Amino acid sequence: MTFYEREFMEGTRGTQAVDWEQRIDTQRLRDERKERALERLRETDLSAMLFVSDPNIRYVTGLAMTGGSGADHYTLLTESGDIVHWDTADHASNQRFNCPWLHDIRYACPGLGNVPRASGRNSARDFLLSTMAEGIAEAMDDYGVADETLGVDVGNRGLLAALEDQGLETDVETCNAVMEDARKIKTDDEIECLRMVASICEAGFQTIKDAAKPGMRETEVWGEAVRELWRHGAFVGGGYLTAGPNTWPKHQANTTDRAIRPGDLVYADFYNIGYLGYRSCYYRTFSMGEPTQEQREAYETARDNLYDVLERIEPGATTDEIARAFPDMEGEHADYYGADDHWQMTTNHWAHGLGLQLYEVPLIWRGLSPDHPIEIEEGMTMAVETQEPAGRQGVRVEEMVVVRENGVEILSQWPVEEITVIDH
């Protein structure tokens, strides 16, 4: 299969704002995401949706949600397109000044998460939750949707009960279905954000190649890579680097203080690196000096397995068909793990959607897809990852892709044909 080829100058321009070239249009990005959510909301019986999940909040507001203490920010989207956002006093004050596209920003009452947990009294928790629900009901009344069903993107029973005490009818399943459908197909600007974060990860890979030497600790090399990611304006919310025997199986502590030695395999996983909120998942393997024949063969197996999967991904294909290209139980080395079924091999060989979260629709995996298939659609974005042991070490390789009309466009561009050799 021929993979999608970008047109001249299509994709991955600079990270700064300029007036002499069309780059990511952040206003268009916000508008198109909100419109996708609204279109799907209007197809339901919901009058509004309440978002507590950070990625959903960012999807409709554009606010930089990077986690918090739990429900100290939440957002209401009505079927008319009105947005009410609640946040902590400091954040809300900044948002009122910096986010002119949002016209109704209120102070949040943190009814879920760390604040009520730390309060130490049920009466305090009840007060916070009921006050949060009261504020939401008031906003719904302000915008004329209080008498209709409210979609909620979390199934917290306490929150749902508090909202129902305010006379609101709630629906979690429909809300989550709306947002899953809205977010699974990416706009052009979203795809460009993913291209951009892939290019930033490649700057990190180059730093690893330049910096790593025998005697350096994994933590030192990873620190240099993270410095480079931040220098390019990325958000670093995860990732790790391991070497030698820490590469197989994945080390539970991720990056350690182990010194890298000649002959080691080294792999870096740039996962959850963000650009404008869009998350990467991008593996590459290095060898400290020329790899052995065993290491070359392991890498070739992992790479071929990966590309066998990529060649099956196209609109209309189903995830059960594609998953058959991933290794069977023997290829998964199930005997090494003492595993009996693919569902026990989570994260070893699979493809998962990418966007404002690390895991989005679709998921392609032998542990799930054969009995629960879904159809691949044009505009879906995902990361596809494989691995293979090489003696007491292991290799991993992963590509970030977007589904095009007749196949996939590979967003990641670090050389994949062979292991990257680090000379020393």
How would you sum up this structure, described in words?
The structure is a single chain. 35% of the residues lie in helices and 21% in strands. By secondary structure, it is an alpha+beta fold. The strands form 3 sheets. The protein has a 6-stranded mixed sheet. Strands 7, 8, 9, 10 and 16 form a 5-stranded mixed sheet that branches. The mean pLDDT is 95. Keywords: Aminopeptidase, Hydrolase, Protease.
Q: What order do the helices and strands come in, and which of them pair?
A:
Layout: H1 26-41, E1 46-51, H2 54-61, E2 74-78, E3 83-87, H3 89-98, E4 105-107, H4 114-119, H5 122-142, E5 149-152, H6 157-165, E6 170-171, H7 172-184, H8 188-211, H9 218-231, E7 235-236, E8 240-243, E9 265-275, E10 278-288, H10 293-310, H11 319-323, H12 334-337, E11 350-353, E12 360-364, E13 381-390, E14 393-404, E15 407-410, E16 420-422
Question: What's the gist of this structure?
Answer:
GO terms for molecular function: aminopeptidase activity. Residues 33-183 form the Creatinase N-terminal domain. The protein is of the alpha+beta class.
Kindly list the characteristics that best describe this protein.
single chain; 424 residues; alpha+beta; Creatine Amidinohydrolase, Chain A, domain 1; Creatine Amidinohydrolase; six-stranded mixed beta sheet; five-stranded mixed beta sheet; 12 helices; 35% helix; 21% strand; globular
